[in-house]
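User:
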Amino acid sequence: MSSTLLSKDKVNSFEFFHINWKVWKIHGLKIVKRDIHTQQRQAVSRSYFFWTIAANFLATILFPIHLSMGIFQSQNKSELFDGISISITSIGTTIKFFLMASKMKQIAQMEALIRVLDARVTHQEELNHYRMRTRLNILNVQKMFLILYCGIGAAVAASFLFSGERRLFFPGWLPFDWRQSIGFYALGILYQLFCIVIQISQNFNNDSFTPKALCLLSAHIELLYMRVSRIGFDDSHSGGSCKTHLQEQDIELKRCVLDQINLYELYKTIQDIISWAMVIQLLVSVLNNCVAMVALLFFATELFDRIYYSIYIVGLAMQLFPSCYYGSDFVLLFEKLHYAVFSCNWIGQSKSFKRHMMIFTERSLRQTMALAGGMFPIHLDTFFATAKATYSLFALIITIK
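Assistant: Predicted structure:
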């Protein structure tokens, strides 16, 4: 048998979302997680249930209110823009978190489809492509988000530690005067620290999920292209009649048609999961980029405040770019998928094979574009449009100023 034949290795794309489920478990989403097979919610302990309620009440619900009310207590313009910026981020994080929590059923459906598509990756050529390109791309995206949010956390800590005065991490309202005593001050710091850690991890999960899911979709489209274009050229059959070979190739094309159907289902499921979360991400990106630019250029006086806002602006761009990039990538791959069927050895195939060719080709001509909220394409064009919108809003604020 040829060296390009089947391998015993197996593909497991769930490894890319392992860290997301670990963090979601800490956030309490194990309560709404559904079994991949039965689609039923899983039982949780009483202590875990109380942790979920307490953590989300304090960090996910109260923290945005705490920060928003702190805007009205700002003593100067620097604090005002600090408060506006972090309040927009916190409110956006909370909305995205609850949107993702409401999509646990769809995430379970996505995992079931990925399991089916993973099972089809058995040829050594596909396995090599998966290991050398797909896996590295997704892990690099995940690593980028880890570095990004660790950098933002470090910048927040440095800005606080090297501040010339005693203050909270961010301006916020508390039911007591934290300036009155060390105990109240420590309580305020601990509360904000707890909430910042929770919300940074929530943002990491929300923002890294979308590009990883879209990258995985692109990868399986590429693998299907390789699978289809190889039909009729694969030397894995060394015996048997010509008729048997033609039947086997027809069966393989039928399987590829089913793979294509599963890919379109995966695309629809991912779009359903990320649609409204991406709307929030786009709005937060435009508003916060503008606010951060104003604060950086006109009101940030401390060195570490400037570093924080610089990292923050870069971070906002990097939150959005991978999702828009892979949103464009899978569209291009879907558009050229019909070329794969004409790259295979289709001449001399059976009538049944050619009927399946037509079915595959017609379906591949379908328009596909992931939309945020059914309005905004998750595409590189949208990424550049948000940059233009940020500049326009920034210019308007400068004019008013």
